[in-house]
Design goal:
This protein has a domain of 74 residues: Arc Repressor Mutant, subunit A (Orthogonal Bundle), CATH 1.10.10.10. It is built from six helices and three strands, in the order H-H-H-E-H-H-E-E-H. Strand 2 and strand 3 form a beta hairpin. Helix 4 packs across helix 5. It is elongated, with a radius of gyration of 21 Å.
Length: 120
Amino acid sequence: MEKRCLDTCEELCEHPQLICRARAQIPANNTIINLAETFKILGDPTRIKILHVLTNHELCVCDIASALDMGQSAISHQLRILRSARLVKYRKEGKSAWYSLADDHVLVLMHQGLEHSKHS
């Protein structure tokens, strides 16, 4: 006995105008690749925690490590990844490296992601 999937069309029925409109709205390939890379980077729980503690204020590496109960070298490694993805920025003040979110887009991304996961 053949099992039917209920989440697919039961017969082929393409709608050319809708297909054309959908194709026109697809971003350029490099944009899609960049977005996929960003989501891949955000797929790590430690990186999410780092971004979350930076949503309200700038912190030095020592403070981030302490807040997450992790070593500074592990945090520094994750911060390098976040920095290369342009999700965080830093500034040096004396011997301390102070980190913050790169821009408001990262803040919106974090808030939207948290809201979405609360309703899942």
